[in-house]
Amino acid sequence: MTTVVFILFSLMVLGGGLMVVTASNIVHAAGALILSLFGVACLYVLLNAGFLAAVQVLVYIGAIAILIIFTVMLIRREGEDRLSFNSMWSGVLVIAVLAFVGLILILNQVWPLGMEGGAPDMNLDPTVQLGRMLLDPAGYVLPFEVASILLLSAMIGAIVIAREKRKE
Amino acid sequence: MDDFRVADLFTSIGRLWTNWLVDLGVSDPWILFINSLIGAILIVVIPVTIVVFTIMGERKIIGRFQDRLGPNRVGPFGFLQTVPDVVKLLTKEIITPDHVDKVMYHIAPMMSVVAVLLIWAVIPFAPNVIGADLDIGVIYFVAVASFGTLAVLFAGWSSNNKYALVAAFRAVAQLISYEVPLVLSLLVPVLLASSMSMQTIVETQRQGWFVILAPISMLIFFISSTAEIGRSPFDLLEADSEIVAGYNIEYSGMKFAMFFLGEWIHAFTICALTATLFFGGWLGPFVTQVPALGVVYFFLKMFILYFVQVWIRTTMPRLRIDHLLNFNWKFLVPLALANLMVMSLVTRLLNPIEGPAADPVVQGAVFFGANLVLVVAALMIVGGVARRARQAQEAQRFRAVASGVQG
Fold first, then answer.
1. Within this chain, do residues A65 and A131 fall inside the same structural domain, yes or no?
2. What is the DSSP letter of B120?
3. Residue of A nearest to B102 (CA)
4. 3 state DSSP class of A121
5. CA torsion sign, B231 to B235 to B241 to B245?
6. pLDDT 10s digit of each residue in chain A, 168 long?
7. SS3 of residue B354 by DSSP
8. What 3-state DSSP class applies to B140?
9. Is residue A88 included in any domain, yes or no?
10. Cα distance between residue B207 and residue B204, in whole Å
11. CATH for A36
12. Domain boundary among A42, A76, A110
């Protein structure tokens, strides 16, 4: 049962991803991206990571995808919304596949695939565990705080750029 | 049959049904599947049924507010007015313009309804009566709400109409802006209950409704959700008194009505959420002994809040778009941020990691006092800024007049 559902969602992710790169209309590509991202959220649910799934939908679909569509719609000019294939696409395809396989091989050397050190304790609420890990001094509090400082500086940067120039 | 109790009506019905399936010899995974399917269908049917009554009720109430009778021709006191309305909408011709983007044009209205219906999966009606008591209930609600924004964007773009596109941009600017204070105010009930599960949030309110502990959050949540559904005074999404309506301009018949169905359902859905998060959801007298009463209390609270919303809708004038965005970014967001900080500080002070938590009455008093101080401070700051702006304007006018006299 789980396998069937997993295959369905994987098809959704991969099919969506394929449509992103093959769609001739750029807004359709953005729509397919949303489908693919939603499939990833469904996979998170299958993995019992409800919080991650909700955050995936919230951040990637609710914020990033909407921003992408917004930008695409704003910068589009007449007759430019049809993408065409570059003549070198077959070469690019080979390089992309090689890079992907190479990355998998290298990463497999550094962090072997598959689960190690046993599954996390399923009796505890995974969301609570995640929260503890993120704010625990022995856990990931430093990367967490560094990331928040990065976001804060991005926000201040946006305000500085968007601010009206005072004419006096 | 012996364990059937009227007091616990809904759980008893569920148990009887499951026992019946077991007696028929249905295997466990299939029982789970069938029960989930029935649950999903109920979650869709309940809000769509309620909306028929709220449309009629709202038209009657607005009629009274505007010193007229409201619909009074179909059925006793016009109570069946919605039935011919629905029949009319269903039988209207659906015209699809030539140059629309077919796929997205047809997906958008469905998405706007589904985005709202999904919220009902996590709303608790009574103890043990809930679609799915997710441990991430609150953030789930925020996540599915983003599909509504997408629907607006899809509808505006796929219509291939400049007015629709501009309206969609305007609408999305409003929707994503008001999502910020909405989420910030939602964090306060989560903080007070130390859980994101809707049932736990309701259970925690046995000691006192969160509206007493966090009235500012309640107001911010209610205001920003009213902006999210695009109702008066925030009805710029489809200002229906203007010539070009909005992102839905190219839609007709039932497809057009789907957007409004979504909006109408959303209107009382946010009331249901406010009732759950801040007014104790299904809590009420004798609810521990008679759990079935929870449904009554829940819908009672929801409809009272809905009345308040209709009241606001019919008495407030529409805001201008720059006022709308300024109100959000310069007032609601800073207030929500300050509120969140104060609330987390007070929570930690009253419930230290070591040592006993403070008495509930003391807690309520301190929380309410902190909110009061915050509101007074916010209003004083806003008042001061407004006064300075007014004085600057007057000084400028004075200078203009003075130079005119000289010349």
1. no
2. G
3. A28
4. coil
5. negative
6. 788 999 999 999 999 999 988 887 888 888 899 999 999 999 998 888 888 899 999 899 988 888 888 888 777 655 555 556 667 878 888 999 999 999 988 888 877 766 555 556 666 777 888 888 888 888 889 999 999 999 999 999 998 998 877 665
7. coil
8. helix
9. no
10. 6
11. 1.20.120.1200
12. A76
Residue A1 included in any domain:
yes
- Tell me the per-residue pLDDT of B53-74, one tens digit each, with 9 for 90 and over: 899 889 999 999 999 988 888 8
| Interface contact flag, A66 B144, Cβ < 8 Å | no
Residue A103 forms part of a structural domain: no
Taking CB atoms and an 8 Å limit, are B101 and A51 in contact across chains?
A: no
User: B42-50, long-range: CB within 8 Å, 24+ apart, which pairs?
Assistant: B43/B117, B43/B120, B43/B121, B43/B131, B44/B117, B44/B120, B46/B120, B47/B116, B47/B117, B47/B120, B47/B265, B47/B268, B47/B269, B48/B117, B48/B261, B48/B265, B50/B265, B50/B268
Q: How many domains does the structure of chain A reveal?
A: 2
Backbone dihedral region for residue B281 (phi beyond 0: left; psi -120 to 50: alpha; all else: beta): left
Phi/psi zone of residue B87: left (φ > 0), alpha (ψ -120 to 50 degrees), beta? Answer: alpha
| Structure token digits, residue B239 | 């200002």
Contacts of B178 in chain A (CB under 8 A): none
Contact B29 A127 (CB under 8 A): no
Amino acid at residue number A53: A
Name the residue of chain B whose CA is nearest to A57's CA: B143
User: What is the H or E stretch that residue B111 is in?
Assistant: helix B102-119
| Structural domain boundaries, residue A51 | 1-76
Count A/B contacts: CB-CB distance under 8 Å: 65
**How far is it, in rounded angstroms, from Cα B198 to Cα B176?**
24
